[in-house]
Amino acid sequence: MTIDSAHQGAVEVSDLNHVYGANGQTRKVLDGISLKVESGKFVSIVGPSGCGKSSLLMMLAGLTRPTSGAIRASGKPVDKPDPQRIGVVFQDASLYPWLSARDNVEFPLSLRGVDKAVRRDKAMDALALVGLEAFAENFPHELSGGMKQRVSIARGLVQDPPILLMDEPFAALDEQTRISMGDELLRIWDKTRKTVIFVTHGLSEAIYLSDEVLVMSGRPGRLLDRVEIDLPRPRNLEMMSTPRFAELRELLWQQIKS
Amino acid sequence: MSPKAVTIVARLAIVLAVFGAWELAPRIDLVDIRLLPPLSEVLATLAQLLSTAKFWSHLGVTLGETLVAFLIAVPLGAVLGILIAESRFASEVFKPLVFFVFSIPKSIFLPIFILLFGITFTQKIAFGVFSTIFIVMMTAFAAIDSVREDHLRVARSYGATMFQTVMRVYLPSMTPVLLEAIRLAMIFNFTGILLAEMYASREGLGNLIGAWGQGYQLKELLAAILLVSAMSILFNEFIRYYEIKCEHWRS
Amino acid sequence: MSVEQRARIARYCLVGALVVLWELLPRLGVVPELFLPPLSRTLQALVGSADEFASHLGVTLYETLISLVFACGGGIVFGLILGASAAMRGLMLPIMSGLFAVPLVVLYPLFTAWFGIGEESKIVFASVYGFLPTLLGTAAGVQTIDRHLITVARSMGATPFQQIVRVYVPATIPTVLSSLRLGGALAIVGVVVAEMLTSTAGIGFLISKYRTLLDSPHVFAAILLVLFLAITFDLMVQSLERRTLGWRRSLRSNELAPSGAGH
Is-above-0.90 flag for pTM? Predict the structure, then answer.
């Protein structure tokens, strides 16, 4: 079955429910979530703490099985991790400290037994994409927080998956770095046009980066609203002080508060 | 049954299985009965020993030495440890030395104690103190360092006096660590005393154990081993119970 | 001059003074020579009986190496298994830590009754002696490893086998090295103490022999030899640890103080 280019990179979630049980108590984490993300769009998910957005992302990544419901990516169901289809970047860069930056980026390829020379080339390309070729042989403890996160992004992109999932990737960074990383991410996205699903706490960050923002409610997690961000691209920092930006921010804030 | 109960039952099962094997293996000739008398016979021997005045006098000697050494080493070690940890300069000078001496096996110095003190009550106590004092000092270091800086800052900002700071911040913070110090100190202390008695002594539990070993009196030997194990484990768990209870004061 | 530098100098002076006192106090008659022979005499004894020391050192080394394999090997392997499985941990750890309180020296006469007074009893004793603390140390160390590293591997499509070999094993190297250090130190102590108690060979045996002969210089010389052995081993493992120093720090929080050594 061929996947047409419109489908490539599309994500579809149907009636996702997840119940978490521990010590004889059950808790409904996600309640009837359904959504569709078009290929090549940058979509953020925001919501209060504990609303289940990270759990949702884990399911999109194939790391957790939902109690019920279906997830499809690029037209095929998601039931286990598939790094060639879906790349994942976590909040904690989680680079392996005993491997150099390049070895870290090569890691997913080496798991598949890809040939050494091919691995090296792909890894260096990915590092070039995030602007860190010069640091390929450095170890994680020699890199700053922002640099580590960029290596993590390179690792997620090294197999050129059509979809990239990001779970609060910039949360552990300082304000300054977060802003520059955001611009960096948009530059990479613009170049590669992946489908990006970006979970974040920051409303401004979500608005600045995305085409659409999905709002989730608190426990149990439900999809409240889909807000389209009609700010022009490419984005720049000045837009953050426009009235439209403030409007959008207010709109999202109201949604979350309720 | 809750998972916690399952774990406890499983643990009990393991212990019972080990004891069961001890009882059966010699009886069914799996193991030479002279080398491993069945558990029941060992326990009977133990009961017999505990009703003998002679045994109690030896046991008393050991417990006496342990207690005296403990009562000297713990306060002394604690005071020295606190004094060192409180002074920045003293810390820098002495801490590495204490760590170094701690990591050296102290048992090998036992003959020196015998050369100095002969084979006496004093010698054993001195060796016991020597074995114990370093772990107490090191725990004191950890205790002082562990008093949370922010708790201290809060107290200071409220104008707490030195006494109040000690009582309200240091003590609750340090109690679990102090209890741990006592627990570890006793392990090292008891081990040191028994070793000294086994090595060269005219009396004491360690001396009896050594003699029984050489005389192939395995029932008595195993009985003594059980007794020593029981005493150590009981003391250890007793202190640990309170340690865990106090732990939540710190956080 | 900073505090560290002043302290370092103070420490060197202190140690230097102790060495000088070691030489002078007995010579001046302040301390009986029986208790503290002058350093020079001790070194003389060491050199003078070098052959005897060397042959007994060989015995001790042999026993120590074998014990090391059992104590560290067993302790690390079981520690890794215990550390990896929460169920096993909950079940076994309390039993193991309870046993930690027992003065294991009392088992040695049992082993001599079972295995005789030759090498076997010492190897068994030292192996048992080193096993438990190494196991506890390894299990504790494994628990400090960031579980997230495995999740990340899963997200990259790693099979369970790959998760163990490519992530878990490298991540446990710092713990394994520190356990090696601990277990080794305990194996050395175990062997020497056993030799001191009942033996016909080994450095521990020499210590006891010369003590009964009231030959302090030889006693001290033998003790120095044991210290030398312990320190050399420790430095060797430390140099291994240094190779992994950079990335070890980012793997987990600071090293814990030694828990079992020092007996």
Answer: no
